[in-house]
């Protein structure tokens, strides 16, 4: 859809200042930008956000950058300089939200603490994302998503039993923290509607992971149970596992509903399972999970993934294949849902990027502009908006306090 055809997003008019870099803070700001917020991303002059050089590069810039920084404007500022800090204060005085993901104390060291900024603008909402939060004995430790995933309890579970715990393959700790931060911002905006006042949102990476760990803690509290790695199975829920098929692929089968299990039993030709009172509910099936898994595995081993999925789909049993990104890119459902969005780059080439979620019927999000190609690409426009003259901007550029468009 062309930019001119898009409806205004639900956050149209919301002004956001992004001081973070890499993943957690920028992902939160990206989510707001996707739904209409005007996000000014502050980058250090020169190299800019390190994410610009992460993973695979196209014409010297990360393809990831095109997703993480779409719909944003880039302002290059040296935050260690007093004049740059004054520019941040000007931006904050007119902003609705400020996002930062530096180590605790960095903002205070620059004279940009939430208290100082909210004294200028009491309506300001400040999202602070850090490894361990702004308080507590670990607050000053450096914390990345991978460490948070381990401390939050996730890494202990992501393994085959008896083997080294592995990461999930993406920076899930950072992303979970970002999404919790967005939730916090939306809650704070609702509070501001009623009170007229902003507030500080303190998100710790490890807490965002821990918040998604389901019954892990109460099970330990009540029973002393320490959940361990279970590979592809879902502990305490049966049957739910990955089963090897004749073509070497795996089918994920979730037959753990009582009526679903009966339909699954019929499909695999084990009708005695459907009538066995010991397998009528989840507790009984968990007690016999090895026998059930073996029977399902015998059935899948004689069929290809496509044959398994076709039979289970016909019977109404939830099942699926393990997608690679090539599978995703070719999938008609992804395409029909607008999740494979073609974007024309500044050089005229096209790339496919993930579409916007969630889907809103009246005020959907969308891709309004590409990620800023140059560090500080929008510096002049942003500085003029906060009252600086061309002469003042030129002086700041000459001194290296703000970045030139390159």
From TrEMBL:
It comes from the Bacteria. This is CoA transferase. The keyword Nucleus does not apply. Signal peptide: none annotated. InterPro entries: CoA-transferase_III_domain (IPR050483), CoA-Trfase_fam_III (IPR003673), CoA-Trfase_III_dom3_sf (IPR044855), CoA-Trfase_III_dom_1_sf (IPR023606). PANTHER family: SUCCINATE--HYDROXYMETHYLGLUTARATE COA-TRANSFERASE. Keywords: Transferase. The keyword Metal-binding does not apply. GO terms for molecular function: CoA-transferase activity. It comes from Caenimonas aquaedulcis.
């Amino acid at each position: 859809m062309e930019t001119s055809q898009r409806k205004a997003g639900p956050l149209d008019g919301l002004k956001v200042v992004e001081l973070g870099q890499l993943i957690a803070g920028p992902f939160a700001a990206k989510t707001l930008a996707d739904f209409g917020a005007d996000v000014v991303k502050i980058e250090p002059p020169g190299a800019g956000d390190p994410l610009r050089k992460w993973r695979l590069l196209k014409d010297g810039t990360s393809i990831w950058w095109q997703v993480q920084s779409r719909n944003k404007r880039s302002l290059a500022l040296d935050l260690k300089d007093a004049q740059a800090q004054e520019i941040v204060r000007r931006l904050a005085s007119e902003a609705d939200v400020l996002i930062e993901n530096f180590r605790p104390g960095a903002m205070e060291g620059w004279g940009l603490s939430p208290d100082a900024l909210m004294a200028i603008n009491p309506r300001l909402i400040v999202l602070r994302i850090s490894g361990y939060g702004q308080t507590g004995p670990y607050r000053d430790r450096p914390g990345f998503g991978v460490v948070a995933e381990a401390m939050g309890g996730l890494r202990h579970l992501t393994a085959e039993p008896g083997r080294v715990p592995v990461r999930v393959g993406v920076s899930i700790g950072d992303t979970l923290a970002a999404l919790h931060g967005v939730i916090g911002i939306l809650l704070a905006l609702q509070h501001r509607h009623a009170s007229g006042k902003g507030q500080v949102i303190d998100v710790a990476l490890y807490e965002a992971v821990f918040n998604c760990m389901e019954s892990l803690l109460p099970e330990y509290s009540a029973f002393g149970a320490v959940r361990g790695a279970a590979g592809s199975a879902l502990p305490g829920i049966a049957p739910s596992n990955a089963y090897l098929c004749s073509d070497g692929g795996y089918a994920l089968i979730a037959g753990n509903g009582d009526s679903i299990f009966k339909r699954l039993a019929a499909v695999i030709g084990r009708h005695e399972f459907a009538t066995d009172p010991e397998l009528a509910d989840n507790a009984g099936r968990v007690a016999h999970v090895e026998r059930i898994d073996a029977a399902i595995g015998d059935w899948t081993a004689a069929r290809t993934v496509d044959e398994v999925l076709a039979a289970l789909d016909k019977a109404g049993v939830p099942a699926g294949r393990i997608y690679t990104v090539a599978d995703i890119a070719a999938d008609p459902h992804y395409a029909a849902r607008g999740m494979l969005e073609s974007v024309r780059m500044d050089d005229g080439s096209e790339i496919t990027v993930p579409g916007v979620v969630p889907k809103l019927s009246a005020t959907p999000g969308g891709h309004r502009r590409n990620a800023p190609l140059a560090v500080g690409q929008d510096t002049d426009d942003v500085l003029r908006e906060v009252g600086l003259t061309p002469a003042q901007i030129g002086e700041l550029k000459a001194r290296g306090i703000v970045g030139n468009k390159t």
